[in-house]
Each structure stands twice: as structure tokens, then as C-alpha cells.
Amino acid sequence: MRVNFTVNGRPQQADDVWEGESLLYVLRERLGLPGSKNACEQGECGSCTVRLDGVPVCACLVAAGQAEGREVVTVEGLAAGGQGELAPVQQAFIDAGAVQCGFCTPGLLVVADDLLAHTPQPSDADIREALSGNLCRCTGYEKILDAVRLAAARAGAGQEG
Amino acid sequence: MDFLRPTGWEEALALKAEHPTAVPIAGGTDVMVEINFDHRRPQQLLDLTRIGELRTWETGEESVRLGAAVPYARIIGQLRTELPGLALAARTVGSPQIRNRGTVGGNLGAASPAGDAHPALLAAGAVVEAGSVRGTRMIPVDSFYTGVKRNALAPDELIRAVHIQRADGPQQFSKVGTRNAMVIAVCAFGLALHPRTRTVRTGIGSAAPTPVRAVAAEEFLAAALEEGRCWDTGRPVPPSAARQFAELASGACSPIDDVRGSAAYRRRAVGVMARRTLDWAWHEYRTDGDGVQQCA
FAD-binding PCMH-type domain: which residues (chain B) (predicted)? Predict the structure, then answer.
């Protein structure tokens, strides 16, 4: 079947999609967007997190046909300019040393970005809750929490300045 | 495989009648796992996400009519006053991403004994609204679960909504798992105090082939509270009564040994959760409820 939907602001069309295929497979294998990672395929790890109509979801659990006509934002869409300039949350992950092997990073970036969009000054409990659906097996999470705090602090300082 | 995409309820019923083996899919948090792992190859997927009414709810005087495809996140955010037990249970479902997609209709459709919504539905009191081209059936949730991952739906029926009694007293939910987030229940327990009828209802998850109520425990506790005039006075539940309630709750289980826990552990844990949820709920009743004015 054919699936038409919007990805990172651009209309996209995927052809020859199998009806049981996941949105994640369409993004990675048909649209060449490998940022969303394929790991557990059962919604446990959060590595494939994308925004579907503005809501963070595991792309591995969305049937491709359910994305028809919807808007999807992947990790590739976080950097608004797309010209090498990183989103604030991406820069904060680098600066805080929150990236080790990097496999979980795209999913964490999407949920962290979504958290800060809704809660610009999150408490530690807010951050832990927002990130609770994303597994990282390298970092022990401390640097990731630091990164989200850093991004929030920078955004706050930017507004005051 | 066909991907069926009805945009209205009547169309969905017609498609289900035409293709009784079609597997309904809403949040996909169960169905897609089965497809991804090649455990299931349905001939048709029946996508319910384009039927707007399934994502809405109506709050009546007695009950909330919760559309089958309302995600858990909405229940937590917007229905915690009317449905506190279900909102607590919803908080323990998967992760934020899963709670954004998973639905009570899906939990009922899958009818896993480990589904987090079931103990809360059993304790609050709920009726499943099932539809087909033949008409509408109202199925009390107590008789909805018929076996491991089996329910009372006919092949041509779909779940349209769940009518859940609005809370008339404190409700609690407890779940045992190996970690705090993203965990399938080893076992779970829901409890609702119903001061209006002076009754107590319970729900046990993952400790029997289906979700079950601990009816003997409910009846014993209601009698003990009546006898001790606890509802009127707000007196603490006598410790011996709480202990007996826990034992009876434990006795209502018929668990198995599996990878998540042994049968003996589940029996024990259900008793502990029964006593704890009763403590929490009764404390709330004494301090927030009607009991407080009458409590010397």
C-alpha cells in the first residue's frame, strides 16, 4: 500500500508498504531516515521515539497505515535550520557529555525536546518521568539528566537576557 | 494482509462483520509487538484511530462513558477525580510513550491477566459496551474475562466504550514489578471503597487465568466495617480484620509459576498489597471523606 504523511514538515510518500509494517521501518528503510533507532521492537527501549501529531510515541508500535495523513517529527527534524546548526537540546547533550555509544541518543533527544517544549523549567522529577521510557546502557543516565538541566538553564538564561 | 481504515463506527462494525478475523488496532502497543515478532499474521488489521468518537468520554452522574481508544495519558491527566483507581493504574502502564498510545479498550481486547486496567475496572465497577451490526451488548466487566487472553466478545463485535462507575470513595492500586517503570505486573491489586453502599470492591491482576475479584474478602471486610461501625465513626479498621481481608484476598488467587514470579510469591504479594491498599484507602476515607466530621 501507499502511505502519505508529513515528515519533519515535508510531504512524503512511501510505496509498496506492507500492511503490517511499522512506522519505524518506513522511516528507516523506505524514507532513508535512520536517526530513529531500531532496537527492541516492543516499546521498551524508546530508541525509536518520534512525535506523531505532536505526541511522543514509539515508532515501532505505530502501524505504517496509521500514519496516513499525520505529521511525524523525527530526530532529524529537531535542528530547525537543518544547516549544521543543532537544536539547543542536541548541543546540551554534546556539552554535558551525555552521548556515549549514541544508540539511545535520538530517542532521548526527542523526549527531552518535547519535555522542554511543554515544561521549560522542569524539576528533576519531571525530567526523570519524561525520560523513563528510554533505556541507556552506557551512561548511567547522570550525564543525560545533566544535559536536560543544561538545556533548560540555557533557555531560561536566554529568556532573561 | 489488508489494512482496513474505517472513519466511522458503523463502517467499522460493517467491516468487522465482513471480516470477523480482522484484528482491531488502536494504540498498537500489544498488536504491533505481536506482528513485529511474527507471533501473529492477521489477514486484516482494522485501524480504529480514525474514529474520533472512540477518543472521547462523557461524564454522567453515575458513571463515565470512556471511549475505547482514549489513551492512558488522558485518563491520568483529566479523569483522576472521577476515576482515581484507573488513573493510578494508568500511571503504571509502560512508559510515557506507551501511555500516549495504549488504551483501556486495548487492554480489554487483549484480556491479558496482567493488563493494568483490569483490577481498577473490577474494583470501581464497570460495564463494557460492545457493538456489532446486530446491535449493542452491555457486558459487566466481571463476566468479560473468560480465560487467558480471552474475552466475551463475539467475532463480529468491537468494544465501543467502557462505562465505569464514578468514585464515591477512595480508590487505590498497587502493582509489583521488577522495576518502577516499563514493567509488566508480576501481580497487581485494586481496591475501591464504596461508602454510599457501604461496600468494598477489589480486583486482582496477574494472579489467576483472568483478572478476578476477591469476593469473599470484599464481603468479609464490608461485614467487619459494618459491625465495627467504622463507616460512621471513621474508626481504624481493626488489625485482625485487615489481616483476615489480606488472607482472603490471597486465597482468591490461583496463580502459576512463571518467569516473572512463583505462584507462592504472587499469593503472598497479593495479600500484602490488599492490606496496604486498604490502609491507604481507609486513611484517606478517615481524613478526607465523610468520616472526618464524625471522627472524635
Answer: 1-169
Q: Do A57 and B35 touch (CB under 8 A)?
A: no
Give the three cell numbers for residue A61: 508500535
Phi/psi of residue B52, nearest 5 degrees: -55, -40
Residues in B touching A58 (Cβ below 8 Å): 29, 97-98, 101
Q: Quote the Cα angle for B185-B54-A11, to 5°.
A: 100
- Can you tell me the distance from the alpha carbon of B175 to that of B67, in angstroms, rounded to the nearest whole number? 25
User: Is the CB of A20 inside 8 Å of chain B's CB atoms?
Assistant: yes
Q: pTM higher than 0.80 for the full model? A: yes
CATH T-level assignment (fold) for domain A88-160: DNA polymerase; domain 1 (1.10.150)
pLDDT tens over chain A, length 161 residues: 999 999 999 999 999 999 999 999 999 999 999 999 999 999 999 999 999 999 999 999 999 999 999 999 999 999 976 667 899 999 999 999 999 999 999 999 999 999 999 999 999 999 999 999 999 999 999 999 999 999 999 998 887 65
Test B100 with A57 for CB contact under 8 angstroms: yes
Q: Angle at CA B203, nearest 5°, toward B140 and B223?
A: 95
B179 and B286 within one domain? yes
Q: What residue spans define the domains of chain A?
A: 3-77, 88-160
- A57: chain B residues, CB-CB within 8 Å: 97, 100-101
ipTM exceeds 0.90, yes or no? yes
| Chain-chain contact of B95 with A63 (C-beta, under 8 angstroms) | no
* Residues in chain B within 8 Å Cβ distance of A56: 96-97, 100
Return the ∠ at Cα B30 (arms to B24 and B32), rounded to 5°: 75
Q: Which domain holds residue B238?
A: 171-294
In a domain, B14, yes or no: no
d(CA B229, CA B217): 18
Return the residue matching grid coordinates 505532536. A54
Dihedral sign computed on CA atoms, order B173, B174, B175, B180? positive
